[in-house]
Amino acid sequence: MDVQNRRVSATRLHSMIGPLAEEGPAYASLARGIRRLVANGRMLHGTVLPSERELVTELGLSRTTVSRAYSELRDRGFATARQGSGTVITVPGGPASGGQEPMPDGAIELDAAGRHAVDLTCAAPSAPVGMVEHYEAAMAQLPAYISGMGYFPLGLPELRSEIARMYRQRGLETSPEQIVVTNGALAGFAAVIRAVLPPGSRVLAESPSYPNTIASLRHHGARVSAVPIGPDGTDLEAVGQALRRIQPAAMLCLPDFHNPTGTLLDNEGRERWARQLDAAKTVGIVDETAVDLWWDREPDVKPMAVYSDRIVSIGSASKSHWGGLRLGWIRCPRSLQGAVTSMRTSLDLGAPVLEQLVLTRMLQTGNGLPDESRKRIRAERDWLHATLSDQLPGWKANLPAGGLSLWWNLPAPRSTVLAEAAARHGVLLAPGSVFAVEDHGLEHWIRTPFALPHEELERAVPGIVAAWHEVA
């Protein structure tokens, strides 16, 4: 759908705003409700609002009230009057460009046309409804911290307590002292690998895998070896053989909705994997950034660290809450607690206080995605899977129970040229080779994230289909 033609009906706007506040002028309540929809990402830049007459009929308000509300939106930069269209939503200052999750340098080539393309290189949802309200509540708490120096190298005590509580709820006994708050999951990985891996150490990782983590290991000087993971999940027999053969110092593990395959490992598999790591005297570095990204039903699985005291767990708020918080955490086994905390303080002096207050509040009011976001993303997963399966019948992908992407098996090894062709058709894709631990191969695979707004996915599908017919 073209942005300039996006419209919201009076009935739909009414349901999104909900009942108007009884206190204060009605026009102010209406304008405030629309501003919050814009701030929370539920009303997009370029959306045409219903006419004043339509909204008067729907809400039962006077024409003067609706007119004044629209006038206040225009005065505050949230709307503009457009000839022939009516009142159109604007994000003050215009929608920010960029903001996507970056891939390693040189992985995706962008040209001038790419600025207007649908970006399917990023697998991350937008902020949930209510984010602005969480920031407003955190701002009210902030004065209590301003009198101090503002440095919390290991994280705010209340945030560390909340994260420890989450682990205990999942069946892993954890104290706040075992939690280290970081500036995102990658910062957590950086601290852990510097704490446990001398440069030149051997590290084992499943292939495909998340490319930024592999890049971080290589930047540290680690020698990364690959063990294949299939579309149905971790091959524990192959993992055991590779651990015995390579004897790596550490292994990167993604048992929770693996990126990009979306597979989930059961408790029996987690226990077996942990025992294999212990037998090889290998530290397990478990990526838990997708642990809360389930769409059908919450899985009955425990953290891998339940089964071994050599496992370091790394979590993040970027996917389950919002990437703009830039907050992650490390759950340290007690044997590595000193080394990890010492290395953490050598990298920087802590995460921003305001964002930590925001995340603390979000964890106190609910551990992960709200039901509304979960329902929306599940619907987009189902729609994209059904639509591409129908229009490209040779493409095959499992319908993942969690994660943020579909991992398509192509009928021909054309992933890289497909990504190049798709860019010409206005869609940015990450070829399978980007996720290969050994920097090559996986030409039979392509990843398509599905957490984008529906109109973006609708724009992307024709470009993907046209690109495939062009290169296949």
From TrEMBL:
InterPro entries: Aminotransferase_I/II_large, HTH_trans_reg/aminotransferase, PyrdxlP-dep_Trfase, PyrdxlP-dep_Trfase_major, Tscrpt_reg_HTH_GntR, WH-like_DNA-bd_sf, WH_DNA-bd_sf. It comes from the Bacteria. Keywords: Aminotransferase, DNA-binding, Pyridoxal phosphate, Transcription, Transcription regulation, Transferase. Residues 24-92 form the HTH gntR-type domain. Gene3D superfamilies: Type I PLP-dependent aspartate aminotransferase-like (Major domain), Winged helix-like DNA-binding domain superfamily/Winged helix DNA-binding domain. PROSITE patterns: HTH_GNTR. The keyword Transcription regulation applies. It holds the Pfam family GntR. In the C-terminal section; belongs to the class-I pyridoxal-phosphate-dependent aminotransferase family. This is DNA-binding transcriptional regulator, MocR family, contains an aminotransferase domain. It comes from Crystallibacter crystallopoietes.
